[in-house]
Prior knowledge:
2 domains; 14 strands
Amino acid sequence: MLRRLLADRVLLELQExxxxxxxxxxxxxxxxxxxxxxxQRPSVYLDLESPSDRSRLTDPEAxxxxxxxxxxxxxxxxxxxxxxxxxxxxxxxxxxxxxxxGLYLLLGSAGLDLLAQSGETLAxxxxxxxxxxxxxxxxxxxxxxxxWLRGGFPQSFNARSDAASLRWRQxxxxxxxxxxxxxxxxxxxxxxxxxxxxxxxxxxxGLLNVSDLGRSLGLDVRTTTRYLDLLVDLLLVRRLPPWHxxxxxxxxxxxxxxxxxxxxxxxxxxxxxxxxxLSHPVVGTSFEGFVIENLAAACEPDATCAFxxxxxxxxxxxxxxxxxxxxxxxEIKRSLAPRVERGFHAACDxxxxxxxxxVTPGAERWPIGNDVEVIxxxxxxxxxxxxxx
Length: 389
């Protein structure tokens, strides 16, 4: 079992907050992480997908009040939305009695219902953490190609073969469409949502044009946006925002769109192994999305992510903006002998980033002029995790 880097953050937040919500897509490892946390303190675990565990919450206030001295872990908590007002009352009661932290660990698939209800009733009482699929810093040296091809869902990454991994991902997609998504949006037709998800895989790293997507699906803009919002809220799709600054430039204002897990991109496009991926047009943007997800996870929550593009052709694939205003400019190239285009240098002249990197699939690091460094993804993730120091 691979240790998740978020474990220490979960423990820290439990020391400081009455409730912690651990959000992420299904099968990303939330339950495994929660059970590891439970070994370090008296705990009660309830799986709210289990009828027997749900029956223990017939009178939730009485049951939970009987465990106020323990960490109560509620898995798939969005299944019982009526719990949130009860949790608020119990947290306030515990505070009056001197218990101010480490009461509840809530696990959810990051649906709109969970976010909205917990935000309305537990404001000031809850900390949010996101657990995505495995990242390169967790799988370790020598795993980059396998992680990129198969994606970071633990069962997919650890499958006995590429074929077994692909079957798992195809089943995962089917299950999400047929069972999980209807829990959050019961009226969305699964087949239309599959077509949208597949179209987004083909569009990987492209500028989002909701009107074009809607026309291809035979839907209006409002409905298409609602479908897309659901995939974003379930942490399956990322809308990477454009960098906005008052530079006197005509900036692109549409976000870029990525299916967040590279393994799901390859499953949606029917790419069973590395040779098929390397010969497919998506190879460059798939690697780009893979890099962005790893860096976003490494620096979260210290930096925000965006891209920069002007109408004149100046472009930076990823801008990391640190809280003190410092910027990092990152170009992503799936080549061991990368060439930096004129547009990157022009964009750096516009933004004056403190650091400039070109990420490649390799592991070596060297300067290539104009304060630009070529660097491997693994090393850059370590730098990003260290913050802007």
